[in-house]
């Protein structure tokens, strides 16, 4: 497995950015200026991850030079981090630099997850809305949405894999466990995003009410769990609020100890409201009936992969 995860992440990054570029060009050439500017705007939030990467380089005693700064401005800072890890793995033997590579890998996993949440997720939401609202749906936006979904799901898998590597006595997750994690993430994300996109298509801005209620519930739940990963009280509250926003779409484990009970509670709440919306669309909205079977099948696939993972493959 050495070199596989960084290399795969780098390949997914390149494919996703290439698809985003093609999608932007397509919208501009077809005169769809609203979608064009929306796709451009989705690229802006990832500068948070680039800025954090620069700050971490300085904190680690490696002040970035002009070349590194230019790469971060071009949103290629994480590409360089992945490339550095691959180069270190090629040069190092099995006993040299293991701890350093693990920390570098951990930094880039967290940064990539942040970038995926800030860039890939909004891009995926926009392209999914375009696919649902357009007749016929374009091939290029569909490919771009699929690559963003895969990239976001793999960022979540990489984060889980790194968390397992950090725990004493734990080894790298086997390929079957990573596949279950990927199917779980992709299945649940597709269900969640399609349900919200259909609701947006039918009821416009009322989707913010639905998402806002879920956001508030998740934030209060995180506070009740005493998520003390941040020491200062003000920052602790802000962290829970921001993580609650992420929980509108997916679950991320940030607490030590067994997580299966927290995962069960999260998906009991999330699955219930999404299945309710799905059944509502299926029985009352004829135009959405062709999307509902996809939502239900993805939900079943994600739930099955989740059960298999926590029953048989979780460390």
From TrEMBL:
The chain crosses the membrane at residues 34-57, 138-159, 179-200, 206-224, 236-254, 266-285, 292-312. It is found in: Cell membrane; Membrane. The keyword NADP does not apply. It is a multi-pass membrane protein. Its main location: membrane. Keywords: Cell membrane, Membrane, Transmembrane, Transmembrane helix. One of its GO terms (cellular component) is plasma membrane. InterPro entries: XK-rel (IPR018629), XK-related_scramblase (IPR050895). Belongs to the XK family. This is XK-related protein. The gene is Xkr5.
């Amino acid at each position: 497995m050495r070199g596989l995860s960084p290399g795969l992440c780098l390949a997914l990054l390149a494919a996703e950015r290439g698809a985003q570029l093609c999608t932007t060009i397509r919208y501009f050439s077809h005169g769809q200026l609203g979608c064009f500017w929306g796709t451009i705007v989705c690229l802006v939030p990832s500068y948070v991850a680039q800025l954090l990467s620069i700050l971490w380089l300085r904190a680690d005693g490696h002040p970035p030079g002009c070349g590194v700064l230019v790469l971060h401005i071009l949103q290629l800072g994480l590409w360089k981090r992945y490339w550095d890890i691959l180069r270190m793995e090629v040069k190092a033997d099995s006993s040299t630099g293991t701890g350093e590579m693990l920390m570098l890998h951990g930094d880039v996993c967290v940064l990539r997850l942040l970038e995926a949440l800030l860039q890939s997720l909004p891009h995926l939401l926009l392209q999914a809305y375009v696919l649902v609202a357009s007749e016929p749906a374009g091939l290029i936006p569909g490919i771009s949405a699929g690559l963003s979904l895969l990239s976001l799901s793999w960022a979540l898998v990489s984060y889980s894999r790194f968390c397992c590597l950090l725990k004493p006595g734990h080894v790298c997750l086997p390929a079957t466990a990573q596949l279950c994690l990927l199917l779980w993430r992709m299945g649940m994300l597709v269900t969640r995003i399609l349900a919200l996109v259909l609701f947006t298509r039918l009821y416009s801005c009322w989707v913010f009410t639905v998402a806002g209620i879920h956001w508030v519930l998740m934030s209060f739940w995180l506070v009740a769990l005493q998520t003390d990963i941040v020491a200062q009280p003000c920052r602790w509250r802000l962290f829970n609020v921001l993580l609650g926003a992420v929980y509108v779409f997916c679950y991320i484990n940030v607490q030590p100890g067994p997580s299966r009970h927290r995962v069960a509670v999260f998906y009991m709440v999330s699955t219930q409201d999404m299945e309710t919306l799905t059944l509502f669309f299926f029985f009352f909205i004829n135009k959405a009936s062709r999307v509902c079977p996809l939502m239900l099948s993805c939900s079943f696939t994600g739930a099955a992969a989740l059960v298999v993972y926590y029953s048989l493959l979780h460390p």
